[in-house]
Amino acid sequence: MTASATAAAVHPAADAVAVTRDLRPLRLITCGSVDDGKSTLIGRLLWDTKAVKEDQAATLRRDSGQQNDLGLPDFALLLDGLQAEREQGITIDVAYRYFATDRRSFIVADTPGHEQYTRNMATGASTADLAVLLVDARTGLLEQTRRHATIASLMGIKQFVLAVNKFDLVGYDQAIFDAISHDFRELALSLGVRQITAIPMSALKGENVVYPAGAVMLWYDGPTLVETLELATVRSAQAGGFRLPVQRVSRPGESFRGYQGTVAGGSVKPGDSVVILPSGMIANVKQIVTFDLVRNAAVAGDAITLVLDRQVDVSRGDMIVSLDAQPMTGLEFEAQIVALQPDGIEPGKRYWLKSGSRRQRVSVKPLSQLELSSGSWRSHADRLAMNAIGKVRLSFDEPAIFDTYDQNRSTGAFILIDPDTHNTIAGGMIAAKRSGGIGIRYEGERVVLSLPADLADQIMASELFANRRDEADVRRMTSAQATELFQNAASDI
Amino acid sequence: MTDVIHAAEPRPASSTKPPLDPHLKALENEAIHIFREVAAEFERPVMLYSIGKDSSVLLHLARKAFHPGRVPFPLLHVDTGWKFKEMIRFRDEIARKYELDLVVHTNARGKAENVTPFTHGSALYTDIMKTEALRQALDAGKYDAAFGGARRDEEASRAKERIYSFRTPDHRWDPRNQRPELWNVYNGMVRKGESVRAFPLSNWTEVDIWRYIQAEDIPLVPLYFAAERPFVERDGMMIHAEDPRLERLPGETVQHDFIRFRTLGCFPLTGAIRSRATTLDEVIAELEIATVSERQGRAIDRDQSGSMEKKKREGYF
After folding, report:
1. What pLDDT is attached to residue B142?
2. Contact at 8 Å (CB) between B256 and B230?
3. Which residue of B has its CA nearest to A83?
C-alpha cells in the first residue's frame, strides 16, 4: 500500500491477452481436519496462480505481523475474512475463493474443519463437482476423513482428490504415500466413488500444488493438484429428460407469453412435445427466446424463455418437461436430509419445501440416521439434531415433482424452511418416490389400459384427465414391454 | 404504451457476435437465474446502480433476464454529490436510452450540513453520504430486495456473503448468522421490514467482468480508459483534478498524464493509475498482469482492517 504501487505504470504484455476460458468453471470443495493445512493449501493455490495481489498480501502482512518459513504472508488470514474469525483464529463459515489458470477457472468452497462441519460442508458440497480431501502425511486417514468423504459422496460428488499434505515432513517416503492412498482408495470405492486421484504434496513449500515437486519426489510421475483440477469434469444434467422449472411468466404485452427459467436437465428445441406439471397439460415448443437471438436449442444450465404453441395454464413453480421422459409426481417421497440449524428437524412439523422455483408445504417423518463414523444407517424416528444426516419420508398436501438426486442434482434437490423463523433448516436429496406398488394409495377398483402413445397423449391433454392427474399412474414403455406386462398380469390371476 | 422491447425486431448487429465462451455463459446463466428468482419472489425489488463497470454488467444482465419485457424494477443511484461528472452524464444517458425507471437519492441532511470528503474525512463522509443515504432510500422505497453488483473476490468479508444476503429491518448484516445456501435454491422468505440484498455477480472476478464487457459490447463511462487527464498526487493516490471543488493543498501541483480508473466512486476518494490502455483489449491485457487489486484505489477500504465488514454490518452495500 505504497505510493510506488499506485503510481507505478502498468505495462501491458502482448502475450497476456490470449487467456481463454474454453471450459466451464470447476467448482470444488476442500475438506480436512483442523491441522491438515487446508487454509495453507488454498492460500498456496491463490498465491501461485497469482490470484492474490500485492496490496492484499501487504494487508495480510500488516494484519498478521507474521510470515511463514518462506517469507510469504499467513495464507490462512486471506480466507478467514471475518473479524470474529481472525480474533478466534478459526474459520466459522463457508468462504468462496476464485483462481484461474490459462486453461480454466475455479470456484473453491472452503469449509471449516471444526465440529460443526457437517452443515457447512454440505452447503459447500451442494454445488461442487469435485472434493479435495486433505490428510496429514504423518497421521494418514482419520475418522474425520471418512466423515468428509461420506458427506461429499452423499451430496453427489463423484470425483475425489486425496491431498497427502506435509509430505516434506515424512521425508518424501513413497511407501507412506502408497499406504495412505491405498487406504483411501478402499474408502472411496466403498462409497461408490471411482474417480480418485491421490497426490503427495507440501502446500507450505508449494510442491505438487501448482508446480511439480521435482527432484525431491522423482518417484512421483502423477499430476499436480492444479493439473488434476484442470482435467476434471463438470457435472452436467444434459443426458436426462428436459426439465424447466418455471421461475416467472413473462407477459410484456398481449402478443407474447413466455415461460422463464433455467433448464435443469436435458435439452429442448422448437417442435418438441412437452408436458406441464403438475397439471399434465401437453403442448409443443414454439420458440426459445433469448436476448440475442431466437435459438435453435437450449441445454441444461441455459437461462431461457420458452414460448409454447398453445394457450395453457402455466405459473411459477410449475415444471415444463419432456413428454417422453417425465419426472416423478406424487404426494410421498423418500429423501436424505442434512439438518442445518440448532432446533433440528421435528417429526410431523409442517415446513416449507423449496425445490427449483416450487415452494410447498411438507411434513417430515425421520426413518433412520447416518452414523458418520461407521457409515451405517441406524433406525431413528425422533427429532434429527443439527448436523445429523437422516433418511426421511416427505408427505405433501399437493403433488410434488422430483427426479432422484442421483439422476438430477437440480430437480432432485430441495431445502426446508422453518415457517416460524423463515430460516433454511435442511438441505435434502430425493432418493425415491414412495412406491408401495401402483395404485396402492387409492381406494376402489383400478383399470390398467394399454394405449397407443398418441391416443394417451390426447386423453392426458383433456381437462377431465388433467384435473385428476394425481390419481392416475402413467408409465411409458414399448409395445413389447406392454405385451409382456399384460401377459404377466394375466398369469397372476 | 407497450412494455415489449424489440419483441419481433431482428437484431442484425448480434448475428455477427460470436457466442460467449462456456465460462462466461455459465456466469451469465447463473446471474439471470438470480434476477428472475428475486423478481418473482419479492414484492418491491430495486437495483442499486452505481454507474461503474460492475453496475453496467449488472444492468446488462437484468435487461437480458427480462427480455423481451422491460426491466421490472427501478434503478436506485445513491448520489453523494461527489461523483465524477462523466459518471452522471453517462447515468442519465443510459437511463434514457434503455427507458429505465431511475431513482436518484442524495442524503438531504448531509447535503444541508455540507458533509464533504474534505471536511469530514473519508470514513464519516462515506457513513453519512453513502451508508445512511442508502438506508434512507431503501426505507423510502419500501424495497424488500435490492440487487447489488458486489463480487466475492473483491474483499475478504464478501467472500462469505450469500447470494441472498439477509438484512434486518434496520439493514444490518449478521455475518455469523447467515442462512445456509445450497445448490441454486434460494430462500426468499422475509417478514415485513426485513429485506435481502441479492448479488447476481457473486461468482464473477474482475477479469470476468472485463471479458464480459468486451464480449457483450457493454457501454462504459470513458474514465475506465486512458486519456490525458489532470490530477494531483495526494496520500499516494492520483486524484482527478477536473472539479473546481478540489482545493489544492500546499505543495500540490496539477499534473497531466495518461491515466485511467480501475474502479469509480467519489472522485476525491478514487485513485487513478498511469496507463496507456485506451481499448478494452488493452485494459484486459493490463489486468492479466496487474499485481495490485482493484480496490487498492479505494480510500474507504483502507481506513482500518476489516473496515468493509464493519461498513456492511452497518448497512453499506
Report:
1. 94
2. yes
3. B306
C-alpha cell at B102: 431511475
Residue A1 forms contact with B (CB below 8 Å): yes
Whether B259 has its CB under 8 Å from any CB of chain A: the answer is no
- The answer on whether A113 is annotated among ligand-binding residues is yes
Has A348 been labeled as part of a binding site? Answer: no
Strand partners, A316: none
How far lies A204's CA from each of A94, A138, A139, A219, A320, in Å?
A: 22, 15, 17, 20, 50
**The predicted structure's pLDDT at residue A435:** 64
Residue B214's contacts (CB-CB under 8 Å, 6 or more residues apart) are B280, B281, B284
Domains of chain B from N-terminus onward: 20-209+308-313 (3.40.50.620), 222-302 (no CATH)
Residue A144: pLDDT band (50, 70, 90) is: confident
Residue-wise pLDDT tens digits, B104-135:
999 999 999 888 888 888 889 988 999 999 99
The length of chain A is 493
User: B58 with B66: CB under 8 angstroms?
Assistant: no
For chain A, list the domains and their CATH numbers.
Answer: 19-231 (3.40.50.300), 243-322 (2.40.30.10), 328-433 (2.40.30.10)
Rg (CA), chain A: 26
Collect all residues of chain A within an 8 Å Cβ-Cβ radius of residue B208: 105
Q: And the C-alpha cell for B226?
A: 486512458
pLDDT tens digits for range A197-215: 999 999 988 999 999 988 8
Is A39 one of the annotated binding-site residues?
A: yes
Chain A residues within an 8 Å CB radius of B190: 422
Question: Is the peptide bond between B222 and the residue preceding it cis, with omega within 30 degrees of 0?
Answer: no
CA distance B122 to A349: 51
Bond prior to B68 in cis (omega within 30° of 0): yes
Minimum distance, in Å, between the CA of residue B126 and any CA atom of chain A: 21
Bridge-based pairing state of the strands A159-165 and A130-136:
parallel
**Residue A152 and residue A31: Cα distance in Å, rounded?**
9
- The C-alpha cell that represents B133 in the structure block: 443515504
Q: Torsion angle, CA of A436/A441/A442/A448, rounded to 10 degrees?
A: -30
Q: If contacts are CB pairs under 8 Å, which of residues 184-243 in chain B contact chain A?
A: 184-187, 189-191, 202-203, 205, 207-208, 211, 233, 236-238
User: What letter would DSSP give residue B131?
Assistant: I
**Nearest residue to A105 via CA among B194, B153, B188, B237:** B153
Task: Give strand pairing partners of A29.
Answer: A109, A131
Q: DSSP readout, B160-181? A: G--SEEEE-TT----GGGPPP-
Asked whether the beta carbons of B264 and B212 are under 8 A apart, the reply is no
Three cell numbers, residue A17: 491477452
Please give the Cα distance from B16 to A316 (Å, whole number): 34
Strand runs (DSSP E) across A340-423, as ranges? 350-355, 358-371, 376-379, 389-402, 413-417
pLDDT in tens, A329-356: 999 999 999 999 999 999 999 999 999 9
Torsion of CA B259, A10, A58, A27, to 10 degrees: 110
d(CA B192, CA A355): 24
Q: Are strands A319-322 and A95-100 parallel, antiparallel or unpaired?
A: unpaired
DSSP state of B129: I
Q: How far apart are CA B149 and CA B138, in angstroms?
A: 16
Q: Is residue A91's pLDDT more than 90? A: no
Q: What letter represents residue B104's amino acid?
A: V
Range 262-301 of B in CB contact (< 8 A) with A: 271, 273-277, 281-282, 284-286, 288-293, 295-297
pLDDT at B29 over 80: yes
Closest residue, chain B, to A101 (C-alpha): B288
A247 to chain B: which residues are within 8 Å by CB?
33, 36-37, 40
Flag whether pLDDT at A441 surpasses 90.
Answer: no
